[in-house]
Every structure is written in C-alpha cells, then in structure tokens.
Amino acid sequence: MDGTDFKEFKNELLQNPNVKQRYEALKPKYAVIAALIAQRNKLKVSQRELARRTGLKQPAICRLESGNGDVTLDTLLKVTRALDMELLLKAK
C-alpha cells in the first residue's frame, strides 16, 4: 500500500512553526486525558460506571475523554477522585 505513514506525516506537519506551537500547547491536555483513560481501563470501569460514581452523565465522560469541549476544575476533580487519582501541579 502506497502512502505516507503517520509518523512521516506528523513530522512533516511539525516542520511548520505554527502547527508545532499548537501541537505543543495541546500536549498537556492530551496527557491528562490519556492518564484518565488508562486508569479507568486499569480499574475496569466503564464510562457509564464512572459517570455514576461522579454524578455526571455518560456523554460528559465521553466528551472529557475525547478532548471535546472544556472541562471545569470541579469536573476534573470529581473524575480523578472517582478513579483514585490525585491531581498534582508543579512549577516548571
């Protein structure tokens, strides 16, 4: 199959300084999302069950995990508590 593989495509896109700046700015957001999903899967908790534990609706969990929309700090704290996680911030 001919075509560009994803890594090549990504590297090519990241040559553009504007694309690279936006990509770097989104990395922390997606790192948090990846950690939440990994913990939910580790605990074998469904989105529906996580919603029940947090008092949220399942579509809200889906939006959080997909990165669509903005999440409030209250929501993030509810989810981390329900997944037995701790939210830590540190200075660079």
What does this structure look like?
The chain is mainly α. The protein has a single domain (6-82), classed as 434 Repressor (Amino-terminal Domain) (Orthogonal Bundle), CATH 1.10.260. Helix content is 66%, strand content 0%. It has helices at residues 6-13, 17-42, 47-54, 58-66, 73-82. Helix 3 crosses helix 4 (58-66) and helix 3 (47-54) crosses helix 5.
Helix and strand layout, with pairings?
Layout: H1 6-13, H2 17-42, H3 47-54, H4 58-66, H5 73-82
Helix pairs in contact: 3-4, 3-5
Concise synopsis of the structure shown:
This protein is mainly alpha-helical and 92 residues long. 66% of the residues lie in helices and 0% in strands.
Helix count from the secondary structure assignment: 5
Overall 3D geometry? elongated
Give the terminus-to-terminus CA distance: 44 Å
Number of domains: 1
User: What sequence of helices (H) and strands (E) makes up the elements?
Assistant: HHHHH
Classification by helices and strands: mainly alpha
Overall residue-averaged pLDDT value: 93
Characterize the largest beta sheet: strand count, sense, and whether it forms a barrel. none
Low-confidence stretches: none
Superfamily (CATH H level) name? lambda repressor-like DNA-binding domains
What is the percentage of strand-forming residues?
A: under 5%
How many β-strand runs? 0
Just give the CATH class.
Mainly Alpha
Helical residue percent band: 55-70%
**CATH-derived topology:** 434 Repressor (Amino-terminal Domain)
Radius of gyration from the alpha-carbon trace, in angstroms: 16 Å
